[in-house]
Write a structure and sequence with these properties.
Elements: H1 20-25, H2 28-33, H3 39-57, E1 59-60, H4 62-66, H5 68-77, E2 84-87, H6 94-102, H7 137-150, E3 158-163, H8 170-179, E4 189-194, H9 204-214, H10 217-221, H11 225-228, E5 232-238, H12 242-255, E6 259-264, H13 272-275, E7 284-285, H14 303-317, E8 321-325, H15 335-340, E9 345-347, H16 352-364, E10 368-374, H17 375-378, H18 382-390, E11 397-401, H19 418-422, E12 429-431, H20 436-448, E13 454-457, E14 471-473, E15 476-481, E16 489-493, H21 498-510, E17 515-519, E18 522-524, H22 528-535, E19 539-547, H23 552-562, E20 569-574, H24 584-590, H25 595-609, E21 613-614, E22 624-625
Parallel strand pairs: 2-3, 3-4, 4-6, 5-6, 8-9, 8-10, 10-11, 11-13, 12-13, 16-17, 16-19, 19-20
Antiparallel strand pairs: 1-7, 12-18, 14-15, 15-17, 21-22
Helix pairs in contact: 5-12, 7-8, 14-20, 16-18, 21-25
The structure holds thiamine diphosphate.
Thiamine diphosphate is lined by residues 63, 66, 89, 91-92, 132-134, 163-166, 195, 197-199, 267, 283, 326-328, 350, 352, 377, 380.
């Protein structure tokens, strides 16, 4: 199939005609009123805006560039928000945002108070769902179409746009099963946006089916997966040809029955560096040079890259080690491992549940699977972790990237729940490395565990430097101990919060507070030695970038209650809330997880338990707390 629309390659940022169409037509009504022969210019202006702004802020680039014409066609055929446009995953909604009055917001995309990188109900009545987790749109569409039918709103259409990658998710396949037999008049329209990629090329039997459809093979015989499930199939259509796409959408509406419109698009369309990149690094980019697509600023080693190097080294040592990814081989750091051991990497598609249950089978079969996911996407597979892996005491290692606050990706991407969820899985050992050296060591320890699951989690940020321990006490790393001081407070650092804990300790040292900082490395189940260490202090404060309620601190507090340790345990962590997008460091600070905030918390807590501050006997020093029993 050939594509017919004009291609405009930014880098030459603004199209020759200037961006005036965008200002005049940045609303659905404006797009509908536009003369069809002006539409290619509108598409070019949208692309130029996206390339200019997203390269400056970072964000999702490739997917949006691929659906510019499709989005224009959707807004011309349907009347949003009366008709409902749902975009699965939501990372491709930038053109939709531009066409629904939000073009100006792209200057502050994904920044605190700025435009969200995903659909946002607070932003616009044209955004019905707040997503980012894939494969949900068809189910929402099912419910909405049924609701409109039940309430007599028969003039409202529901359209779900879903990528070929998202279609590989179990939830989407469940929806196809439910929707294929829908009664006429209450079936949503499914637009399958097929660019043949997830990040990597989309995998599996579905991808093979779509390739045959793109090649025209099965369309010829009139039967395919979708028709067999009860849908009408319309396509394949060139999704960059606005007129053809509008025409097929009108046909779909006229059918009034379950229908899949197969639209073929090119991810990254119109932006040279994205089109040329077979690894799809422009799926989501940081701040890059718009002309070359290369990152601006020196690249720092990330947690992902530290993990990637170590798992590749381990792969050479252990033939039984296999790695699993849910359509995110490169983002989770499996590039080197997969290049060296291609037959030992399994990509499930966007199917975390399948990946985890399949890992259970791999472990039963004598291998040691390492399941590599973003922390937020593990939520999907909690039941498989519990029932298929842990109940069977299988040696599966979970490696969770992007744990804790992820920053600009917002509410649905933060990995806030993993510590709370995994610490309650019977038999699962959970580690939170504080630095690259600990990540390497803990990964090795994890894959050596043969009688049950293990998990490691680390955040989205640059890794390092290493924070070596002063001593190790029954498995607990002691990172700081105020010299010649009482044991006033124990700071229990979970993972990378060690840096803030050490900063707080230095401040508290200066105030005459005796501080111990420990990193338990393996944070759940509770190491009994940690309970003993708590008992030797007046106060313990746990610090984690996960939920404060129900996380590791709560687990430790419960352990102390059970074992009659009377020292109060105070938990510092993230609120049980859907945190919005913004700078990661700002959000950690706001949650009380910065060094200064921790020092203040400890002072307040000690103040409540101890006599108030006394003036320092040493002039020029900050005020000292008069701690009972303290040597003068
Ligand atoms: C449950 C879940 N797992 C993983 C991801 C990470 N992810 C974001 S977009 C994407 C690929 C989506 O592919 P496709 O639906 O074809 O859209 P495209 O980006 O190709 O336009 C993946 C794997 C996700 N969003 N949700």
């Amino acid at each position: 199939m050939t594509t017919t629309a004009d291609k405009h390659v930014p880098g030459a940022a603004v199209p020759p005609e200037g961006p005036e169409l965008l200002s005049a037509t940045g609303t659905p009504q404006g797009v509908r009123a536009l003369d069809p022969d002006r539409l290619p210019q509108l598409a070019a202006e949208i692309r130029a805006l996206l390339v200019r702004t997203v390269t400056a802020t970072g964000g999702h680039l490739g997917a949006g560039l691929g659906v510019v014409e499709l989005t224009i066609a959707l807004h011309r055929v349907f009347e949003s928000p009366r008709d409902v446009l749902l975009f699965d995953t939501g990372h491709q909604t930038y053109p939709h945002k531009v066409l629904t009055g939000r073009a100006a917001g792209f200057e502050a995309l994904r920044q605190t108070g700025g435009l969200s990188g995903y659909p946002s109900r607070a932003e616009s009545e044209h955004d019905w769902i707040e997503n980012s987790h894939a494969s949900t749109a068809l189910a929402y569409a099912d419910g909405l179409a049924k609701a409109f039918h039940c309430t007599g709103q028969t003039d409202r259409r529901v359209v779900a746009v879903i990528g070929d990658g998202a279609m590989t998710g179990g939830l989407a396949l469940e929806a196809l099963n439910n929707l294929g037999g829908s009664a006429a008049g209450r079936a949503p329209i499914i637009v399958l946006n097929d660019n043949s990629r997830s990040y990597d090329p989309t995998v599996g039997a579905l991808a093979a089916q779509l390739a045959r459809l793109r090649g025209g093979e099965e369309a010829m015989c009139g039967r395919n997966l979708f028709t067999d499930l009860g849908f009408r199939y319309l396509g394949p259509i060139d999704g960059h040809d606005i007129a053809a796409t509008e025409a097929v959408l009108h046909r779909a509406v006229a059918l009034g029955r379950p229908v899949v419109v197969h639209v073929v698009t090119e991810k990254g369309r119109g932006y040279g560096p994205a089109e040329a990149d077979s690894d799809d690094r422009m799926h989501a980019c940081g701040i890059i040079d718009p002309a070359t697509g290369r990152p601006l600023g020196a690249a720092k080693p990330s947690w992902t890259s530290v993990f990637g190097a170590e798992i590749a080294a381990l792969g050479a040592e252990r033939q039984d080690l296999v790695a699993l990814t849910a359509a995110m081989r490169l983002p989770v750091g499996l590039g080197t491992f997969s290049a060296r051991f291609p037959e030992r990497v399994f990509d499930s598609g966007i199917a975390e549940q399948h990946a985890v249950a399949s890992a259970a089978g791999l472990a039963m079969g004598g291998l040691h699977p390492v399941v590599c996911l973003y922390a937020t996407f593990l939520n999907r597979a909690y039941d498989q972790v519990l029932m298929d892996v842990a109940l069977h005491r299988l040696p599966v290692t979970f490696v969770l990237d992007r744990a804790g606050i992820t920053g600009p990706d917002g509410a649905s991407h933060h990995g806030l729940w993993d510590l709370a969820m995994l610490s309650r899985v019977p038999g699962l050992r959970l580690a939170a490395p504080r630095d690259p050296a600990r990540l390497r060591a803990l990964l090795r320890e994890a894959v050596d565990v043969a009688d049950g699951p293990t998990a490691l989690r680390f955040p989205k940020e640059s890794a390092g430097p290493d924070l070596d321990a002063l001593a190790t006490l029954d498995g607990l790393d002691i990172l700081h101990r105020t010299p010649h001081a009482d044991l006033d407070v124990l700071l229990v650092a979970i993972g990378t919060t060690a840096t803030a804990c050490l900063e707080a300790a230095r401040t508290l040292d200066g105030l005459g507070v005796g501080v111990t900082v420990t990193d338990p490395r393996w944070v759940a189940p509770v190491n009994p030695a940690l309970g003993h260490l708590v008992a030797r202090h007046r106060l313990a404060v746990t610090v984690e970038d996960g939920l404060a309620d129900g996380g590791i601190g709560t687990l430790l507090a419960q352990h102390c209650t059970r074992t009659a340790v009377t020292t109060p345990v105070h938990t510092v962590g993230l609120p049980t809330a859907f945190l919005t997008h913004g700078e990661r460091t700002d959000q950690l600070r706001d949650a009380g997880l910065s060094g200064p905030a921790l020092a203040e918390t400890v002072q307040t807590l000690l103040g409540a338990r101890m006599p108030p501050f006394a003036e320092s006997p040493r002039s020029g020093h900050p005020p000292q707390r008069a701690v009972p029993g303290r040597r003068a």
